[in-house]
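On to our target:
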Amino acid sequence: MKRAIVTGATGAVGTALVRELAEAGVEVLVFVREESARNQNIPAHPLVRRISCAMEDLAEIQNTTGTDWDVFYHLAWAGASGPGRNDMYLQNRNVKYALDAVAAAKRFGCRLFVGAGSQAEYGRVEGTLKPDTPAFPEMGYGYAKLCAGQMTRDYACQLGLGHTWVRILSVYGPHDGEQSMVMSAIRKLRSGQTPEFTRAEQQWDYLYSGDAARALRLLGEVGRTAAENGNGRGGRIYVLGSGRARPLAEYIAEIRDIAAPGAELGIGRLPYAPNQVMYLCADISALEEDTGWRPEVSFKDGIREILLGQDIGKEESAS
């Protein structure tokens, strides 16, 4: 893989992927919404360049770069958190944009389309999540991700493109959303507040964004080669996580011990959400077999990386 296109490049996974690709010597073209303040998160690198293209522009954008590209990573998604997760009209538009992204990948000469799915496609599952685990989503976000994965796969096949769908579990890291458990806990602890949680009995699987990005790069390389050779691997589904589940309370305690040792934790102060997922763990055996990938960054080290890169809570504590 020499050239790759990335949408949704301003969050935890996207920024890490752009950096991972560029540092591996891959030229990266980032599709951006010009007015987004989060564009400042995109890594500056000689191999990274930007082109103006919001999701609603994917249907019309043409390849004016003068070259063909290899892999198209579609990470952009509206309403991935908050009330938007159950906005059915918004989520339905996301499916259209994903199909538009496949068509754009074809126009830009790509051989492989890599789409970012979600654990929300499965709904509530007691066991480890595998590519073939039955999927019964329970919210608009999960419905749309499942539909997008299926429809983009068939559309990519119609256009002669390889297709890889990656169901991503809980990724954390620099530039993660402010309302995520990890980032909100760090922010409140660093500002002297007491973060509030449920009883935190959930068994959870967290993966550092840098590890996720390395997995996506490797899947891009493997999938592109498979698509060129016509051996069928380009149509696979993968589940991306650490492969290990631990009680959420343990993660919360580690955040506290690093961000604000000795601080009080409000565990048990909040009720569980309706349809709360209580067990989340990825079966990463297919990913390991096809790419040789293994997670390398511990949760503690990932939290330290976040604090090194962002002085979270300093302004709040000073006010």
Summary: The chain is about 35% helix and 15% strand. The first strand starts at residue 3 and ends at 7. Residues 181-204+243-318 form a domain with the UDP-galactose 4-epimerase; domain 1 fold (CATH 3.90.25.10).
